[in-house]
Amino acid sequence: MDTRLATFLEVIDTRNYTKASKNLHITQPAVTKHIHSLEEEFGVKLFTYDGKKILMTKEAERLESYARGLQKNYRDLVDSFRAAPLKKIRIGLTKTIGNYAYVEELSRMMKNRTNEFAITIDNTGMLLDQLRNAQLDFLIVEGRFSKSEFDYEILTEDLFTGLCAPGDPLAKGVFNMEELGEACLLLREPGSGSREILEQKLQYKGYDVGDFKRLITCSSLQLITKLVEREVGITFGYESILKEEPNLATFHVRGITDRHEFSLVALKGTGGIELYHELKRT
């Protein structure tokens, strides 16, 4: 891989020329020279400054997408030359998908194969960062992502709606947002796909999560569903959760309940989309 691009990615990751030079074991003037060389070659400005803060230009964002793909392909090539007996397949899944929606799909892909698998379950933001750093081969996510930055394919849709205990007065009903103000809301951590979807929809209607009577935040989706089952409060998520959690009920909220995409995401040009379909075929 072009050492200038490696330097460019390190500057993006650290947002500091001095830290980049230390991590790469080169001088700071060498870092500056690599960046200037790229700018001259492409005829664009890659970084600007807001005080001491380094900001990326739109051209830098395009170059980053290209460089991340090269970085992953290079690492994959190195691994192949080292003749590892089995290709380890690294998959990232958001919590709803990994714990509920795609359990059967994963079982079919992994069963009776000789490959090693490394499955990472995390929120959408963390998974996208790992993908950018070539630590994962592909993701399946329900949250938002930059479709211009990645290769992607929409796999399916699921209904995003309210979830409550079967004995809750909300169960199976249809409500306006104004009728939920006295409810206790159990919610995933910031950065999770389901939380971003809910916050976006609430904002469009002029609300936010702070408008509920009480808010409980938890990074464990399984714990949230167990607390909802025990009538601690309500939450919002995908209807497919009920396949694994039959002791929950759904309710619809006008302007909130809607169908959302589950997407396959990979770095551009790295073959992650093709790898997923190969796993499904065999």
Task: Write up this protein.
With 282 residues, the chain is an alpha/beta fold. The protein is 42% helix and 24% strand. The strands form three sheets. Strands 3, 4, 5, 6, 7, 10, 11 and 12 form an eight-stranded mixed sheet that branches. 32% of the residues are buried. The model has no long low-confidence stretch (mean pLDDT 89).
**SSE order:** HHHEEHEHHEHEEEEHEHEHEEH
Low-confidence stretches: none
**Biggest beta sheet summary:** 8 strands, mixed
Overall radius of gyration: 22 Å
Please tell me what the overall shape is. Answer: globular
Helix percentage: 40-55%
Mean pLDDT: 89
Separate helix tally: 11
Taking the alpha carbons of the first and last residues, their distance comes to: 32 Å
SS-based class: alpha/beta
Count of strand segments: 12
Strand content: 15-25%
Give a short synopsis of this structure.
The protein has helices at 3-14, 17-24, 28-42, 58-81, 95-101, 103-110, 124-132, 193-204, 221-229, 241-244, 272-281, and strands spanning 47-50, 53-56, 88-93, 116-121, 138-141, 150-164, 174-175, 184-187, 214-217, 235-238, 249-253, 258-267. The chain is α/β, with parallel strands linked by helices and 282 residues long. Strands 3, 4, 5, 6, 7, 10, 11 and 12 form an 8-stranded mixed beta sheet that branches. A two-stranded antiparallel sheet has the order 1-2.
Topology, element by element:
Blueprint: H1 3-14, H2 17-24, H3 28-42, E1 47-50, E2 53-56, H4 58-81, E3 88-93, H5 95-101, H6 103-110, E4 116-121, H7 124-132, E5 138-141, E6 150-164, E7 174-175, E8 184-187, H8 193-204, E9 214-217, H9 221-229, E10 235-238, H10 241-244, E11 249-253, E12 258-267, H11 272-281
Parallel strand pairs: 3-4, 3-5, 7-11, 8-9
Antiparallel strand pairs: 1-2, 5-12, 6-10, 6-11, 6-12
